[in-house]
Amino acid sequence: MTEHTSSTPTAVPVGRTADGDADLFRPDPQAAPAWRMVTAQAGMELRIMLRHGEQFLLTMVIPVLLLVGFSLTSVLDVGGGSRVDALTPGVLALAVMSTSFTGLAIGTGFERRYGVLKRLGATPLPRFGLLAAKTLAVLGVQAIQIAVLSSAALLLGWSPSLAPVGAVAALALLLLATAAFSSLALLMAGTLRAEATLAGANLVYVLMLGLGGVLFPTSSFPGPVEQTVAALPITALTSGLRAVLVDGSLPGAAPFAVLAVWTAVAGLLASRLFRWE
Fold first, then answer.
1. Distance set, CA 253 to CA 147, 190, 243 (Å)
2. Taking Cα atoms as reference points, which of 183, 195, 203 lies closest to residue 273?
3. Whose CA is closest to 84, among 158, 11, 171, 32?
4. Do residues 133 and 214 lie in contact, with contact meaning Cβ atoms separated by under 8 Å?
């Protein structure tokens, strides 16, 4: 008789393969690394900001129209010298404020109203990760704004007096102003209703356009008014950029101090008063 060998398979413990190695198909659910979550969220935030019609109008169209319109016409008295040289620093400051304050406040306010922030809070993305993603998206839009406005200004004959040390000072002013405006935006969006945030952010935008030294230096204001508006973050940013780009000198400590105080106070209040739903 022919001897038959049993073909019954050998029992394998659960979670192991026949050769004893760990099971490669065993589920291992876990959150992605924090940097990957922040990067993905920042990319989505950037796409949303660029696709939003009202924010695109505030961040791109209006600053370019102001720069081109007032550079080519003499409707506005900007003092002596080149008109585009005098206007470009203020328009750059306005563009930074439009993204890091107006656009961020309105977008975050309606995200809060419709429960988007509440749902994001239930995901593995931590709250600091959401704030970091929004900050990265704001910086991405600002980089596009500065590139577009600088290109338009150069085509209009802009010749900035920019030294390497001045470039570092201008970058520091832009980053500090972004922190100050973003803190104010989150404070407004996290404490007011979405409709109130929409109205308030647009009102502040218009007031800062007229009082913040964006289109003309604040030295044309009466003494008490000039001293009052000097404490505004948009005025500090504008005056600092004018010192670097027009005068070719380093700004004093005052613009940095004003922006630092606004960042500290608004950031502290936003961290304590912000409501996610």
1. 27, 31, 12
2. 183
3. 158
4. no
The Cβ of residue 224 has, within 10 Å, a number of other Cβ atoms equal to 8
The tokens describing 174, both together, are: 């832009």
State phi, psi for 22 to the nearest 5 degrees.
-65, 145
Picking from 60, 52, 63, 178, the residue whose alpha carbon sits closest to that of residue 110 is 52
CA distances from 2 to 5, 8, 10 (A): 10, 18, 23
Q: What is the residue whose two structure tokens read 């003092």? A: 79
**H/E run at residue 215:** none
Low-confidence ranges of the chain (pLDDT < 50): 1-6, 12-15, 17
Is the pTM here over 0.70, yes or no? yes
Domain ranges of the chain: 34-69+80-273
Nearest CA among 211, 215, 208, 248 for reference residue 86: 215
Identify any residues that bridge with 22 across adjacent strands, giving them in sequence order.
16
pLDDT of the residue at 6: 47
Which pLDDT score, from 0 to 100, does residue 92 have?
Answer: 95
